[in-house]
Structure formats: structure tokens, C-alpha cells
């Protein structure tokens, strides 16, 4: 390990920079790890979370975020602040398995809404080109203390794979989940999944003040609280959340 990544104000990012032997440089092993037990291979998925095609990067000009494919025809769940609460309708790109697709916003909650949600639609169908299975939405609420994993494209726009960090559910509210997974810029709209690989929460933001950032304390919308409405939306493409 060469050292820790830090923000300009000196706060820890929660990631470490590592030097790899020359024989590893040509491989696709990530060189950034989390001090909160970043892992390459998931204990419940032989391929590893970072290799699952349902986790995508959303690009908008010089800004990027994360999202999760929730239907076979290319509906993507993300957070509404990424698309300016619906003000941005197009000019979006989604990177799926290192391929770029145009996308548009088909639903977004307004600013101040209880749920900060947006749904994007890839304009080119994935039926013939997307071999993976969309993520499964968890049907039950989170459990205090259970192990969870945050998946998002943090920090680096050109990342080929998402960053995966491990943590626990530290607090539960009616519509939100607080976890100890390390979350940084770019992970907004990403996924919090349980040990079964099911979508438990939608990453909104880490906790921050004017002086400090707390990457290992983050707020997520609880999928359980809007799952039924989201499934109806997927079926009808028009039921309000």
C-alpha cells in the first residue's frame, strides 16, 4: 500500500492506493481498495459484484453517477438529483459493459419529494445485447446490523468496473437506510445490496458538513418502501411512484 486517498480538506476518502507487481498490471484487478474491507469476489456470487452487468455508470456532460438496471428492456433506477429532479430529459449516456447507450429520463421525483428517485430508459433495447439478469428488488425491510454492500462508480469517471465496499445497516427509518459502507462522489444513484444480491437501497449521499465529509456514513432510500409502486411502473410505464 502506498497511502490513503484524501479530500483537499484532509478528510479520508476511505480508499487506499496500492502498488501492484508488474505481472498484475495487464490484468483487470482494481488498484483501489476500501479500508472498510473492499472485496474482489463476493461471498454470494462467484463472479463478484463488480462483474455484474446490472450496475451501470450514468454520464451527463462532465458529471457522472451510478444506476442499476431493473428491467430487461433497459429501465434504470437512479437518484433524481443526478438528473436535476427531472429538468434534464435527454443528453444522457449509460455505460453498460463498457458500451455507451443513449438514455432519457422517463420519471423523476421533484425536489423535496420523500423519495429521491429517477427512472431512465436506454433508447436502444438491450434484449439482444444484454445477457445479464436485471437486479432483483428485495421484498423485505433492512435489518439493523446486517451486512450490506454499496456498488457505485465512485471518484473516477473512466472506471471500467464499479467500486464495491462492505458495511452494515447502522440505522433504519421508515423510508431510508443508513449504512457504514464507504460512499464517495460518483456513487450517487448506485445500489446497496444484501448478501443475496438483492437491491436493498438506493444511494443518495454520504453525510457531510461544511468542514468535513463522512464517506462511511451514507443515506439511502429504502427499496422496500417503494417496491410495489416501482414494479407497477415497470409493468405499465406510467403509474406514478
From TrEMBL:
**Lineage top rank: taxon:** Eukaryota
Summarize what the UniProt record says about post-translational modification.
The full-lengh TYSND1 is the active the proteolytic processing of PTS1- and PTS2-proteins and in self-cleavage, and intermolecular self-cleavage of TYSND1 down-regulates its protease activity.
Instruction: Please state the span of the N-terminal signal peptide per the UniProt entry.
Output: none
InterPro entries per the record? Peptidase_S1_PA, Peptidase_S1_PA_chymotrypsin, TYSND1/DEG15
Location, primary (coarse class) = other
Give the matching SUPFAM superfamilies.
Trypsin-like serine proteases
Q: Which GO terms describe its biological process?
A: protein processing; regulation of fatty acid beta-oxidation
Cross-referenced Gene3D superfamilies: Trypsin-like serine proteases
Q: What class of enzyme is it?
A: hydrolase
Alphabetically sorted, this entry's keywords are: Hydrolase, Peroxisome, Protease, Serine protease
Molecular function (Gene Ontology), one example: serine-type endopeptidase activity
Localization: Peroxisome
EC annotation from Swiss-Prot or TrEMBL: 3.4.21.-
Listed GO cellular component terms?
Answer: peroxisome
- Function text: Peroxisomal protease that mediates both the removal of the leader peptide from proteins containing a PTS2 target sequence and processes several PTS1-containing proteins. Catalyzes the processing of PTS1-proteins involved in the peroxisomal beta-oxidation of fatty acids.
Q: What's the family?
A: Belongs to the peptidase S1B family.
Instruction: Provide the protein name.
Output: Peroxisomal leader peptide-processing protease
Supply the source organism for this entry. Rhodnius prolixus
Amino acid at each position: 500500500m502506498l497511502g490513503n486517498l484524501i479530500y483537499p480538506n484532509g478528510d479520508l476518502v476511505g480508499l487506499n492506493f496500492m502498488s501492484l507487481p508488474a505481472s498484475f498490471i495487464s490484468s483487470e484487478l482494481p488498484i483501489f481498495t476500501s479500508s472498510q474491507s473492499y472485496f474482489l469476489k463476493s461471498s454470494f456470487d462467484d463472479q463478484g459484484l463488480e462483474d455484474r452487468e446490472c450496475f451501470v455508470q450514468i454520464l451527463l456532460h462532465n458529471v457522472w453517477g451510478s444506476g442499476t438496471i431493473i428491467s430487461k428492456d433497459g429501465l434504470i433506477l437512479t437518484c433524481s438529483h443526478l438528473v436535476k429532479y427531472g429538468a434534464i430529459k435527454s443528453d444522457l449516456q449509460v455505460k453498460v459493459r463498457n458500451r455507451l447507450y443513449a438514455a432519457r429520463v422517463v420519471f423523476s421525483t421533484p425536489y423535496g419529494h420523500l423519495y429521491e428517485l429517477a427512472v431512465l430508459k436506454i433508447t436502444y433495447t438491450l434484449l439482444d445485447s444484454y445477457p445479464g439478469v436485471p437486479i432483483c428488488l428485495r421484498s423485505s425491510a433492512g435489518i439493523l446490523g446486517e451486512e450490506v454492500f454499496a456498488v457505485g462508480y465512485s471518484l473516477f469517471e473512466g472506471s471500467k468496473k464499479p467500486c464495491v465496499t462492505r458495511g452494515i445497516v447502522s440505522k433504519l427509518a421508515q423510508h431510508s437506510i443508513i449504512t457504514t459502507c464507504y460512499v464517495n462522489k460518483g456513487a450517487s444513484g448506485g445500489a446497496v445490496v444484501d448478501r443475496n444480491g438483492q437491491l436493498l437501497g438506493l444511494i443518495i449521499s454520504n453525510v457531510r458538513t461544511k468542514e468535513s465529509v463522512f464517506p462511511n456514513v451514507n443515506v439511502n432510500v429504502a427499496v422496500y418502501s417503494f417496491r410495489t409502486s416501482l414494479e407497477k411502473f415497470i409493468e405499465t410505464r406510467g403509474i406514478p411512484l
